[in-house]
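Chain A, query sequence.
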Amino acid sequence: MKVRIMVRATAPWTVARYGFLIFAIACLGFYSYVSIERTIYQTYESRVFDRAPVRGSAALATNDRTTPTGHVARSSLPLQEVIGRLSIPRLHLSAMVHEGIDGKTLQLAVGHIPATVLPGQAGNVGLAGHRDTFFRGLKDLKTHDEIRFSALRGDFKYEVESIVVVEPDNLGVLATSSENVLTLVTCFPFSYIGNAPKRYIVRARQVLPPPTAATAVE
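Chain A, predicted structure.
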């Protein structure tokens, strides 16, 4: 009588499953770390911003210059410098805004597009953010929604005028304007995995504050 000894080799799929499991755990750990870092950073920067002693036009006066057309243009600012806080009340969205749109800046905050003006200056204020972090809620944005921007110059309110989807090379959405407008840029579709092929553009117009009593009398 022959006794057959069966040696069961480890199946390739078993090894693959363990590999995928380890990879998934590593990704989850990295995502958790980045998410926690972003939350702590935003909380800290928000508190520091709220305690800033100077909140007026003089704070950024040295960054202004006037063009031949009479419009105020923006000089270059250091990357990651705090610009202010963006908020959309209906969406419960609030995020600190920093100068620049490099990877590190957009990981921790909404980025102010350097080629555009700052809040309070005549023209087009451009902001960019990731669709899977700060700007995820933009998919539920509607026309006439209110957008607030608190900056060192003061507090500004905007009303959403239009929402469009464009090609990524369409730079016309960031063109200068004779009016005070705000443009939010993120990738589209929101559920796309990988580098999204389109850009989701929100255009809002600044709502002028009501005149003061002194102005009304004059």
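Residues 57-73, 211-218 have pLDDT under 50 and may be disordered. Strands lie at 64-66, 72-74, 82-88, 93-99, 110-112, 124-128, 146-151, 154-166, 181-188, 198-207.
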